[in-house]
Hints:
By secondary structure, this protein is of the alpha+beta class. The protein has helices at residues 2-5, 16-25, 27-42, 64-71, 139-145; strands at residues 49-50, 57-58, 88-91, 96-104, 119-122, 125-127, 152-160.
Amino acid sequence: MLFAALGQEKRPLREHFAFWAELWQARELREELRQLLGVLEDRRRHQSLALERFPLRVHARYSRAEVSAALGLMSQKTGKLLSTQAGVFRCREHASDLLFVTLDKDERDFTPTTLYQDYPISPSVFHWESQGVTREDSETGRRYRRPPPGWRIMLLMRQAKRNARGLT
């Protein structure tokens, strides 16, 4: 996950040892990174909770690359972290459906068919409109509504498509 968090998600994972060697050689960069991690630790605004079976935390912030790294999702073709682009990713290896949700949708970034009305109803209930191709009585629709034993639904939310710095 640190490999992804440090902007290396475009490199094949087999290069991660080379990256660590490069980082180890850059003493000033290592020191700056150490200081930055201390500052970021002080800026945590809310408590996060451990997520069983995953190196992720509930109510924490992750990039898509960090989520892919945490779940070990890698492209077989390129050897790079998998770039999940769809709003839903079925992760059989971890018996999970990952639902990527943007709460504040801008019509410039979404088509009329993807301006889903997604919003929290209570601390434990979320209104999520599925993809148009998923029917309530389909296998996928039934799995979303009543996951089988051991299967989990992971809701990965962001407020808007771009943050204050204009990054996705």
